[in-house]
Design a protein that fits this description.
heterodimer; A: MetI-like fold; about 0% strand; B: about 300 residues; mainly alpha; MetI-like fold; 2 domains
């Protein structure tokens, strides 16, 4: 600071040249990131959109523009429709399942005087673990012959249930794993929302006679958690839409296509069959869904501070 | 309702008497019961993984009747997992890839974030708009063209390929920009007058001030890339460059027989680093991972 007081014109000169220096450094600092944004995001997205109008296959010498051909093909592609409906079913199960259970857990944990942090650690544990490894474990846990669930069923004299082998149950099984992984994450978001509720509101409600936990929930907690809930729902929806790992590790789309999901379809077409054109068109559809969800999320972006 | 309240003691008194009221005791017991049942569901795969990893192979088939292993067979199972499959190499790959990705992300995003937060230049609104747009794009969207680009320069199945799409994180730029934005302008101005160059301001003032945000981002970045399957599955063809999730799949496919003990030992080894790190630094983890709520 002593430099400030020093006489001379230097500081003034520096100040007057400041806007130019600032503009120059600003550009230089942002340039590498900008180049990467262009190279790794903008150009690839444009390429995907353009390739979606072609019948290009990796390594093919001859290929042509086919206009909306790929999108036409989608309409007649049973795998595409299955993957769309399975993805939506999965989302429809995982979002309410993980949001409601997280809400219950968060409220119960928040009111506890003992073991509060123990519960928090346990419920958050699946969020940090490698889902691939835990998928292998779940596959084993739910194994109709060897798993502990099968053991319990047998002890009760019930027939074994092959959750991943039964076309009607496979999505339920995958959803269970999805819920298992997301509960802790959503719990943390709800806990943040709960701590932000002023305690006076509960006191005021109690004076009005709302003393029963259900009254407290209906009159204070739930209305005050509204914004958090909307945010959690949108975030969970985006995550659930991107289901891939459990499918790739456990079911590979089976049995009889009942666990095919959007990303797994794109992965197979693009990187197993090398149908680049068709996979690009599928990617565009996926991108549109994600962007719509992201716009919804941006709509609630002012609720984003959770810590 | 109001007639009732007049006959009741004040809420504060109710609260103090809480522990003695039988209905509140029951309420608390029910709450604990619900939480414990949920916790058992959450812990089930972890417990079963650990129990199986120390079980004798023959005992796996009757484990349903006899959950707790009679004999400790952990040494053999873990030894088998480590010797039959290059698990340690997969984890080493994971460390290399995650560390390099994090370093690149910080190197590229911190200067850009400072420029977007505190320096005014013409392209700034445009770049910020691109960053916001980039936040919505999942890795799977750009995977195909980047894969083709890497194939055309014969760089598939390399560390470079594993890192490339993640070398820039628009999320990091966004996060640090928000953080820098609240940094007082007066201090930056004073530093300029003291003769600091913009680069020195960035390195000696802004970056140290952002250490909490950097730590939170590091947790987020490391957990997402340690656990990522999609991109490694796409670009890696040989086990030499496999990251832990891919290694787990390779290992699982090798163990087509019935060596569940070794398989669960392998899963334990791969899961352990992040779980241990989480137990040590819970607060940082929760903060870092739930930051994705912003994403």
């Amino acid at each position: 600071m002593a430099v400030l007081a020093a006489p001379g014109t230097q500081p003034i000169r520096r100040l007057s040249s400041q806007p130019r220096v600032e503009a120059f450094t600003g550009q230089m600092f942002a340039l590498p990131a900008l180049l990467l944004i262009v190279g790794l995001l903008i150009v690839p997205i444009l390429v995907v959109i353009v390739l979606g109008f072609s019948d290009y296959q990796l390594g093919a010498i001859e290929w042509s523009w086919i206009g909306l051909g790929n999108y036409q093909r989608m309409l007649d592609d049973p795998v595409f429709w299955r993957s769309i409906s399975n993805t939506f079913l999965y989302v429809a199960a995982v979002v309410p399942g993980s949001v409601l259970s997280a809400l219950v857990v968060a409220i119960l944990v928040n009111d506890r005087k003992h073991f509060k942090s123990v519960y928090q650690i346990i419920y958050f544990l699946p969020v940090t673990t490698t889902l691939i490894a835990m998928s292998v474990v779940w596959h084993f846990v739910l194994n109709p012959q060897l798993g502990p669930i099968a053991g319990v069923l047998r002890a009760l004299g019930l027939p074994p249930v092959d959750l991943f082998g039964d076309p009607d149950l496979v999505l339920i099984a995958l959803s269970l794993i999805g819920i298992w992984q997301l509960v802790g994450f959503n719990m943390v978001l709800f806990l943040a929302g709960l701590t932000a509720i002023p305690h006076d509101l509960y006191d005021a409600a109690a004076i009005d006679g709302a003393d029963h936990p259900w009254d407290r929930f209906a009159r204070v907690t739930w209305p005050m958690l509204g914004p958090t809930t909307v945010f959690v729902v949108v975030t969970t929806t985006i995550t659930a839409f991107r289901v891939f790992d459990t499918v790739a590790v456990i079911t590979r789309g089976g049995p009889i296509g009942r666990s095919e999901v959007m990303l797994y379809d794109i992965y197979l077409e693009g990187f197993q069959y090398f149908e680049i054109g068709y996979a690009s068109a599928l990617t565009v559809v996926f991108l549109v869904v994600v962007v719509v969800l992201a716009v919804l999320q941006a709509f609630f972006l002012d609720r984003k501070v959770h810590y | 309702m109001s007639a009732l309240t007049t006959t009741r003691p004040s809420p504060g008194l109710l609260f103090r008497l809480g522990l003695m009221r039988p209905d509140l005791v029951i309420r608390s017991a029910v709450a604990h019961l619900v939480l414990i049942v949920g916790a058992l569901f959450v812990l089930l795969p972890f417990v079963w993984m650990l129990l199986t990893s120390i079980r004798k192979p023959e005992a796996v088939f009757t484990a349903g009747f006899n959950p707790i292993p009679d004999e400790f067979h952990g040494v053999e199972n873990y030894g088998h997992a480590l010797s039959q499959s290059p698990l340690l190499q997969f984890m080493g790959n994971g460390v290399i890839v995650c560390a390099a990705i994090l370093a690149l992300q910080l190197i590229f995003s911190l200067p850009a974030a400072y420029a977007l937060a505190k320096l005014s230049f013409r392209a700034r609104p445009l770049i910020f708009a691109l960053v916001l747009m980039g936040l919505t794009v999942p890795e799977q969207v750009t995977a195909l063209p980047i894969y083709m680009g890497l194939a055309s320069i014969d760089m598939l199945d390399t560390y470079f390929a594993l890192m490339l799409p993640f070398s820039l994180s628009v999320f990091a730029i966004f996060l640090f920009r928000q953080f820098f934005k609240s940094f007082p302008d007066e201090i930056i101005q004073a530093a300029r007058l003291d003769g600091f160059t913009e680069f020195e301001i960035l390195i000696r003032i802004m970056v140290p001030s952002a250490l909490p945000a950097i730590a939170a981002f590091a947790v987020f970045s490391i957990t997402s890339h340690w656990n990522d399957l999609y991109w490694p599955l796409v670009v890696t063809t040989s086990p030499e460059h496999a990251t832990p999730p891919l290694g787990m799949m390779i290992f699982r496919d090798q163990e087509t027989g019935s060596n569940y003990g070794a398989l669960m030992a392998g899963a334990t080894i791969i899961t352990a680093p992040l779980v241990i790190a989480f137990l040590i630094a819970q607060r940082q983890f929760v903060r870092g991972i739930t930051m994705t709520g912003v994403k």
